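Worked problem 6 (solution included).
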Amino acid sequence: MQTLTRSAWLLLAGVHIPPAMAAPFPGLMAQLYGVAPAGDVALMLSHRAMLFLAIVLACLWGAFAPAARRPLSLIVAISILGFLWLYLSAGAPEGALRTIAIADGIALAPLVVVLIQAWTDRTG
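Solution. The predicted structure is:
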């Protein structure tokens, strides 16, 4: 079970790496979101990228620190479920947002694994 849980955390980290890389590599904003890497929107997306870096680090921490998994699982769940809820509330728009929704949809499987482990394992 430990290998499955650790793998799930690492998969969740992997899902969050591309958006995190938009901060050091602004050219990714055009690829990921169809937005020019300059201006107010780019600044907000750079900030978003930094928050995704925090989520990547949380996932890596969760992979190797069982005692920290409960609060970390909530952070990752808010990221994934929050975006999917917002996306569906907006009418499931096409384009770059659909790609993000697909990635988050795929991430639901490892998210379920980490949530079950975090909230049923008595050690954390």
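Discussion: DSSP finds five helices and no strands in the chain.
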